[in-house]
C-alpha cells in the first residue's frame, strides 16, 4: 500500500463537483462527500473517472 503524495492530494478535486477530496488510505480511495463517490487509487495513481468511481452511502 502506498501513500498518496500530499502535494497531489491538495490539488485534486472531484471531477463532478469540483470539491476537495478526502483520502481513505486503508481503502485506497479518494472520497468525494459532495458527490457521494469514491475514486480508486491503483498502484498509487488516482483514477479520476466518474465511470470508475464507487457510489458511497450518504450518512444518516
Automatic annotation (TrEMBL):
- Its recorded name reads UPF0434 protein C8J26_0169
Into which family does the record put it?
Belongs to the UPF0434 family.
Please name the Pfam families in this protein's record. Trm112p
Q: Which GO terms describe its cellular component?
A: cytosol
InterPro entries on file: Trm112-like (IPR005651)
SUPFAM superfamilies of this UniProt entry? Answer: Trm112p-like
